[in-house]
Write a structure and sequence with these properties.
By secondary structure, the chain is α/β, with parallel strands linked by helices. It has a single domain, classed as Alpha/Beta hydrolase fold, catalytic domain (Rossmann fold), CATH 3.40.50. It has ten helices and ten strands. The chain has helices spanning 46-56, 82-97, 115-124, 142-145, 151-172, 195-198, 217-221, 247-256, 272-275, 277-295, and strands at 2-10, 13-21, 30-36, 60-64, 102-112, 129-135, 177-178, 212-213, 236-241, 261-266. The strands form two sheets. An eight-stranded mixed β-sheet has the order 1-2-4-3-5-6-9-10, sandwiched between helices. Helix 3 links the parallel strand 5 (102-112) and strand 6 (129-135). Helix 2 (82-97) crosses helix 3. The longest helix is centred in the middle third of the chain and has 22 residues, at 151-172. Residues 12-139 form the Xaa-Pro dipeptidyl-peptidase-like domain.
């Protein structure tokens, strides 16, 4: 396996990515899969973990940082802006679909956690993605996400702070930051104990800045990740478990999508699917079979 950095553009902003290839022969065509991770993360976290596994199975996997995150350009920084991320996914799919070493079966997309809902929306907008897979996918709307943040009162507090932060940014250009992860701190993006984000051997890596632009609350909480379902007809796979977030949403999406759908139901908690060997192996095996059936066998090219 070989990896190397790439850059491409989205709405004039330079995005930084990494290619994970099963071979250093650039004339060898392979199926290409784009891989992205959870909200508030960078490519070196769960995305690279899954990309490496897919490359070992013969796929070319591409990870990238969204606008305003990691090594990519763009302002405001550390802002969870769903529409901006959806546009980046469209741009990444267009870039990947034109690579000369990509097979002509089309590009696949693997979204882990929250980026799965953005990919679903990008496909509905016409992104050239021929096969979709979600692992521990987070698909929310405001009524379903509110209990994570203390119900109506907690949501109102966050929306009020986001409005103030947005006004400050528009008036002065200043981006007010809060921790992305800080157990017990209700102003943080994630305030419950999650070892993945606190453990340097897991997700608390040097490339990740533990910050979130506070203006993110408004676009995040009001985004409807379920709305695109009926507009998506590409073959899709959902890898999930009862221990992951919104399992009933996954069951509903499996019925609502316009195209063929497979579901692989495993065991484990949400963050187990980010990096734990048993859950990653279960997920990658299902994803591998799905992409092979749609995009073609990597060993056949």
């Amino acid at each position: 396996m070989i990896t190397y950095p790439i850059v491409f553009t989205s709405n004039g902003i330079t995005l930084a990515g990494r290619v994970h290839r099963p071979t250093d022969d650039l004339t060898a065509r392979t199926p290409v899969v784009l891989v992205t991770g959870s909200w508030l993360t960078v490519k070196e976290q769960m995305a690279d973990r899954y990309a490496a596994e897919l490359a070992r199975r013969g796929f070319t996997a591409i990870t990238f940082d969204f606008t305003g995150w990691g090594e990519s350009g763009g302002e405001p920084r550390q802002a969870e802006l769903p529409e901006r991320k959806i546009a980046d996914i469209v741009a990444a799919a267009q870039y990947a679909s034109r690579l000369s070493w990509a097979t002509r079966g089309g590009v696949g997309y693997l979204g882990v956690c929250a980026s799965a809902q953005y990919a679903l929306a990008a496909i509905a907008q016409g992104a050239p993605i021929k096969a979709f897979a979600s692992v521990a996918g987070w698909f929310h709307d405001l009524p379903s996400v509110a209990p994570f943040y203390g119900g109506a009162e907690g949501v109102a507090m966050r929306l009020r702070r986001a409005q103030e932060a947005t006004e400050l940014f528009l008036r002065t250009g200043e981006v007010r930051m809060v921790p992305a992860y800080d157990p017990g701190n209700e102003t943080a993006g994630m305030f419950l104990e999650m070892d993945y984000y606190g453990n340097p051997s897991r997700g608390a890596i040097p490339q990740w800045r533990n910050e979130m632009a506070e203006l993110s609350w408004l676009p995040w909480l009001t985004f409807d990740g379920l709305a695109a379902a009926e507009s998506v007809a590409v073959p899709s796979l959902f890898v999930h478990s009862d221990g992951c977030v919104f399992p009933d949403h996954i069951r509903a999406l499996a019925k609502r999508l316009a195209g063929p759908v497979e579901v692989a139901w495993g065991e484990g908690a949400q963050i187990d699917f980010y990096d734990q060997p048993a859950q990653v192996e279960f997920a990658v095996s299902a994803v591998d079979a799905h992409f092979r059936s749609v995009l073609g066998d990597p060993g056949a090219h």
